[in-house]
Automatic annotation (TrEMBL):
Source organism per UniProt: Hippocampus comes
Record key words, sorted: Antiport, Calcium, Membrane, Metal-binding, Mitochondrion, Mitochondrion inner membrane, Repeat, Transmembrane, Transmembrane helix, Transport
PANTHER family: SOLUTE CARRIER FAMILY 25
Gene Ontology molecular-function annotations: antiporter activity; calcium ion binding
Catalyzed chemical reaction(s): ADP(out) + phosphate(in) + H(+)(out) = ADP(in) + phosphate(out) + H(+)(in); dAMP(out) + phosphate(in) = dAMP(in) + phosphate(out); ADP(out) + diphosphate(in) = ADP(in) + diphosphate(out); 3'-AMP(in) + ADP(out) + H(+)(out) = 3'-AMP(out) + ADP(in) + H(+)(in)
Solcar repeat extents: 191-277, 285-370, 382-470
Topology of the protein relative to the lipid bilayer: Multi-pass membrane protein
GO terms for cellular component: mitochondrial inner membrane
Subcellular location per the Swiss-Prot or TrEMBL entry: Mitochondrion inner membrane
Gene3D superfamilies (alphabetical): EF-hand (1.10.238.10), Mitochondrial carrier domain (1.50.40.10)
Protein name listed in UniProt: Calcium-binding mitochondrial carrier protein SCaMC-1-like
Leader sequence segment: none
Length: 475
């Protein structure tokens, strides 16, 4: 069905000449349904559906990319220019994948290329990807088949499609323990990477602000809820509102947002250095090395900004009038407790990075490979909902594994502010929690933490996409 529909509009696709105006003219006339000399988004979308190559958002991106006079449509000149430039990029990519220079791409070459991009797949999955592009059934893709498959795809190479699967820290859930973003050499040389970091930081700021009440409730329950003093969601919110009003639900959010930028920057720079150290200059990094690099980068960033984590916890738990602001809080802690207080809970926080990042990445890789195994016959592009689903599930699993350490960290950070005379170690605090509250005492506050995951991820993703458009890195 797919091949029949596609051949309806591209009957001469395999004999096209990239410089032939006639070929482009024929295609343009078929897409220009109302014969006004222009192809708009609706006409292009209908044409792509008829060809069987429709991809969500593709028509909009193609028109935006080729629309030079910004009238919302493509005339013949704009249409031709876009396709010629796009085909040049496709040709370069095809040649880079055709390793033995025989003019065709086979499953082994697909497998090798994906492996270099950090995606290890077996021969069966490589054949499925190949089959999605193969028109004549030879299980090999020549230039014409490659061009026809990607001609109306905004991504011009396999690398861009697979990059959809990069586990991006843009999915901000308030816990910056995930593997950092990865960028191509082109993005690094052009400066596009910093725009993506800025977009991610803004998305994280909006996301954290939107879910701050749930985050404060989580910290409140981690510190104050016990077996004898159970705090429900309703009771917790009521206590906080009665004590400080509705605005008190956002206590600690200011510094929680403020620490995003330095943590993201440090983590990204450290990640790049650790990748080079573990895999060598110019080499592609394997999954286990990527995890190790990410964990070490996370540890480096956390070490640098950890005093801000302590301030965030203290400001989140503060009573009305206790501190006039973050500087007053820092000055008070320094005066009463000394410099060491800014690193209370540092060990469990550091240890929590390993299970969080490890399980998060492992689950994500498993979900990704499972999806590719079943769906690559149709497309290697997973789509937004699949990505959000995989990111949400993997992050949730990571939280489940590291949550007890996060709870211990929070209690150690808050200990002095509660006027506690004893300052127990991590192990004794864990032991006491289990003795007094049982195993599930290690998961106090996890309900509001889970409740914020989906809205946090959704808000973060939407803001990120708008920021990319605003900064000119996505059209």
């Amino acid at each position: 069905m797919f091949r029949t529909l596609r051949s309806g509009l591209l009957p001469t696709a395999r004999c096209w000449d990239a410089d032939s105006e006639r070929s482009y003219q024929d295609l343009f006339e078929k897409l220009d349904a109302n014969k006004d000399g222009k192809v708009d988004v609706a006409e292009l979308r209908a044409g792509l559906k008829a060809m069987g190559v429709f991809r969500q958002g593709a028509a909009q991106k193609i028109v935006m990319s080729g629309d030079q006079n910004k009238d919302g449509s493509l005339d013949f000149h704009e249409f031709t220019k876009y396709l010629k430039e796009h085909e040049k990029k496709l040709r370069l990519t095809f040649k880079s994948l055709d390793r033995n220079n025989d003019g065709r791409i086979d499953a082994t070459e697909i497998q090798q290329s994906l492996a270099e991009l950090g995606l290890d797949i077996n021969k069966v999955d490589a054949l499925k990807i190949l089959q999605s592009m193969d028109i004549d059934g030879t299980m090999m893709v020549d230039w014409n088949e490659w061009r026809e498959h990607f001609l109306f795809h905004p991504a011009h190479n396999l690398q861009e499609i697979i990059r959809y699967w990069k586990h991006s820290s843009v999915l901000d859930i308030g816990d910056s323990l995930a593997i950092p973003d990865e960028f191509t050499e082109e993005e690094k040389s052009s400066g596009g990477w910093w725009k993506q970091l800025v977009a991610g930081a803004v998305a994280g700021s909006v996301s954290r602000t939107g879910t701050a009440p749930l985050d404060r409730l989580k910290v409140f329950m981690q510190v104050h809820s016990t077996k004898t003093n159970k705090i429900s969601l309703a009771k917790g919110f009521k206590q906080m509102i009665v004590e400080g009003g509705v605005t008190s639900l956002w206590r600690g959010n200011g510094i929680n947002v403020l620490k995003i930028a330095p943590e993201t920057a440090i983590k990204f720079m450290a990640y790049e250095q650790f990748k080079k150290l573990l895999s060598g200059e110019g080499e592609n990094i394997e999954t286990h090395k990527r995890f190790l690099s990410g964990s070490l980068a996370g540890a480096t960033a956390q070490t640098a900004i950890y005093p801000m984590e302590v301030l965030k916890t203290r400001l989140t738990l503060r009573k009305t009038g206790q501190y006039s602001g973050m500087f007053d809080c820092a000055k008070t802690i320094l005066k009463k407790e000394g410099v060491k207080a800014f690193y209370k809970g540092y060990i469990p926080n550091l240890l929590g990075i390993i299970p969080y990042a490890g399980i998060d990445l492992a689950v994500y890789e498993s979900l990704k490979n499972a999806w590719l195994s079943y769906h690559t016959k149709d497309s290697a592009n997973p789509g937004v909902l699949v990505l959000l689903g995989c990111g949400t599930i993997s992050s949730t699993c990571g939280q489940l594994a590291s949550y007890p350490l996060a709870l211990v960290r929070t209690r150690m950070q808050a200990r002095a502010s509660l006027n506690a005379s004893d300052q127990p170690s991590m192990s004794s605090l864990l032991k006491n929690i289990v003795i007094k509250d049982g195993f599930f005492g290690l998961y106090r506050g996890i309900l509001p933490n889970f409740m914020k995951v989906i809205p946090a991820v959704s808000i973060s993703y939407v803001v990120y996409e708008y920021m990319k458009i605003g900064l000119g890195i996505s059209k």
